[in-house]
Amino acid sequence: MFKTARSKVQTWITAGGGTIAALFVAGLMGAFGALPAHDPPQLPPDAVIEAGRWRLQPVRAYVGHAGVHGVPLKPGQKALVLEVDMTNRTAQSDKGYFNVFAPDGVILSDPVPMIVLTRDSTMTPELHPGMTERMAYVWPLAGDAAVPASLAFGVTAEIFKPRDNLYGTPGWYNPYRLGTVTLPVADLPAAGQSQSGQSQSGQPESGP
């Protein structure tokens, strides 16, 4: 009889322990789920950023009104431009850089930027391994779109997998927000016009 009672106690402890453990884990998951999500860290604007397959060095940000590295703009448009020195850290030429930067707090005409090699205005070139190139990310904006004096750009990185679970091939996967870099935004007038609305000759620009 004593043995039977002891067995019943052990069974109760085992079942109860499992229930308690389950409740404990569920409580932890609920607690972690209730925690606020951490904002991505602020990245120094003057430091090199290691972002997976790319090494990045932001250079400057500005609003251009015409002739932005040969990128065509529609009448009445302007463009938000981010210039950045980019280095391909992989062993093959690549142009998978479209989602690396995204401006926060600006209404874009198109979230996908046009990207230009600044030295010769080549559109969306492949970047060769180990060669640093200055690239311009160009986002067209409506002419009356408000752009703050400083702007945060989200930086997206990826993770290299020698063998992806889905495809079974090596590559860069799982994009995530690495952080945010904030830069001052200059306003560059159209070619031939100064900030004060005068031509380079010093005479006021004619207009209606």
Structure description:
The chain is α+β, with helices and mostly antiparallel strands and 208 residues long. The chain has a single domain (42-188), classed as Immunoglobulin-like, CATH 2.60.40. Helix content is 16%, strand content 38%. It is built from one helix and ten strands, in the order H-E-E-E-E-E-E-E-E-E-E. A hairpin with a 2-residue loop joins strand 2 (49-51) and strand 3 (54-64). The radius of gyration is 27 Å and the shape is globular. It starts with a helix and ends in a 20-residue tail after the last strand. Residues 11-35 and 192-208 have low confidence and may be disordered. Residues 192-208 have a biased composition (Low complexity).
Compact overview of the structure:
The protein has 208 residues and is an alpha+beta fold. It contains one helix and ten strands; from the N terminus they run αββββββββββ. Keywords: Membrane, Transmembrane, Transmembrane helix.
Keywords:
single chain; 208 residues; alpha+beta; Immunoglobulin-like; 10-stranded mixed beta sheet; 1 helix; 10 strands; 16% helix; disordered C terminus; transmembrane helix; transmembrane
Total domain modules: 1
Topology-level CATH name? Immunoglobulin-like
Low-confidence stretches: 11-35, 192-208
Mean pLDDT figure: 81
Report the portion of residues in β strands.
Answer: 35-45%
The number of distinct helices, counting runs of at least 4 residues, comes to 1
Termini distance? 107 Å
Largest sheet: 10 strands, mixed
Helix content: 10-25%
CATH class: Mainly Beta
CATH architecture: Sandwich
Strand-pairing-aware structural class: alpha+beta
Based on Cα principal axes, name the global outline: globular
Please provide the ordered H/E string of secondary-structure elements: HEEEEEEEEEE
Number of strands: 10
- Radius of gyration, in angstroms, nearest whole number: 27 Å
